Amino acid sequence: MKDNSINDEQLLCQLEAMAKDYGIDITNEIATITKKIEESARSTAKVWEKVELARHADRPRTLDYINLIIDNFVELHGDRYYADDPALVGGLGFVDGIPVTVIGNMKGRNLKETIDRNGGMANPEGYRKALRLAKQAEKFGRPVISFIDTQGAYPGLGSEERGIGEAIAVNLREFSQLKTPVICIIIGEGGSGGALGIGVGDKIYMLENAIYSVISPEGCASILLRDSARAKDAAAMLRITATDVLDMKVINGILSEPKGGAQKNPQQTAATIKQQIKADLEKLMQKTPEVLVKYRNKKIQEMGVFSE
Description:
This protein has helices spanning 4-21, 27-54, 62-69, 111-116, 124-140, 157-161, 164-176, 192-196, 217-223, 231-238, 242-247, 266-284, 289-302, and strands spanning 71-75, 88-95, 98-105, 144-150, 182-191, 203-207, 211-213, 253-255. By secondary structure, it is of the alpha/beta class.
C-alpha cells in the first residue's frame, strides 16, 4: 500500500535539497506547495466521507422510502421475458392521492437480503421489468418515480449472456421518449450504467450524501492510478459528490439530509423527498406529453457541453 503523504514529503525534500545545491531560495514556493497539498488532503477526506455515508449499512433503502412516501403500494413482478429480479423493485401507489408508478434499485438491509437482492446490482430482467412498468405508466398517464441506489449493473456471465448492455441501452432510449413525467432521485450510490438504466428523467435529484459516478472509486484507482489502495484519491478526482454533479448541471438539485446522514432520521429525509416530488408533479403534470419529451431531450443534449 502506498502512502501518498510520504511521497509528497519526499518530493518536497528532494526539491529543497536541489535548491540548496544551486543556492536558490524557494521558501515561499515550498510553503505554497505545502498548503495546496494540505488542502487537497482535506478535500479528499471530505469526499471519502460522502462515499462512506452513501454506502452506510443503515442508510434507508428504496423500499424504506416507498413505505414512507407512497400510499397503498403494490409491488409488481417479472419482466415477461425471463424472470423477476429482486435487485430492482417496482409497483403502483399514490403520493397524496396522485397515482404513480415507482421503480428502484434495492440493496439488502442485512447479509441474507443483500445476497438475495444481489447487492442492488440488477440483471437485464431488472431493467426490462422497469421498462415494462414505465410503459404501463405511460399508457395510463401515471408519473414515474425512480429511486437509484446501486454500485452498477451486475456484470456476471449470465447477465452478459442475456444482454445487460442492450437492456440498459434500450431503457436510455425509451425513458428519454416516455410520454409521462419522470422524476429520478439518487438516494445512495449512483453507479455507472446501472444507475443510468433508470436514471433518465425530467427532474433528477441527489440526496446530500449520495454519490454519482461513471465507475467506482476502487475501479478507477485500479485502472487509472494502477493502485487500488488509492480509492480515496480516485473519488476526489471523479467529482462524484452531489455538489460536484450539480455544478456540472447533470442534476436539478440537492435534497438535504439530517446531520450525520439519512440513517439518522429516515422520516425527515423521506419528508424532504416527498415535498420535492409533490412540487415537481404539480408542474410536470400540467405539461403535454410532447412538451415533456421535448424539454427532457433538450436537457439531455445539453449535458457535457463545455467551452474553454
